[in-house]
Amino acid sequence: MQENRTTEKIISTKEKIINSSKRLFSEHGYKATSVRKIASDVGIRESALYNHFKNKEDIFLTVAKDIFSSPFSFSHDEIKDAALKGKVFLNKYAMQYKLLTFDKNNESMFRILLIELLQNKELREQFMSEFHDKNIKVLSEGFFIMMQNDLIRSSDPMMLSYEFLSTLFYIRLQITLIRYDSISTTSLSTQFEKHVDFFWESIRK
Prior knowledge:
Layout: H1 2-28, H2 35-42, H3 46-49, H4 56-68, H5 76-83, H6 87-102, H7 104-116, H8 121-148, H9 157-180, H10 191-203
Helix pairs in contact: 1-2, 1-4, 1-7, 4-8, 5-8, 6-9, 6-10, 8-9, 9-10
């Protein structure tokens, strides 16, 4: 029983560190956020924080992994079931992407990550692994299943994935840049749905 309580306490403290770090990074930036600030915000000693993370970069990479995660974390069977619905699969994917784009905490971290990507090799590798590779894999699998079931025209599923994902990423980037200057993004709020409509019409049988 004591062991279970200890495990719960460790998990809880680690989550607090991640949540505090995400907020502090988004408010002050990576460089201005120190381990001491994070520990103080969580309400623990700086030395205690090192029981959970090696250093500030380790915390940042953990937070980044969460931000870069694929909108879909599906098993093969779940991807198959969703892909058999054709356009519905793409709509669900795009809507998850849209939710991430308009999430304020996610958006603030996304800005910082764009800056840090150019300065941190490990972050770049993580971006390629957690965002690019995983998203392309999920989409490629979905498109391949659609082709097998004669829902869309035969093509290269990987290239279709690149085409579909790249536009979503660009819309997200565009919205982030515009909102940075406090300009309304109302006119762009339906771009995700429009992209799905346009893309589906270009590939369906």
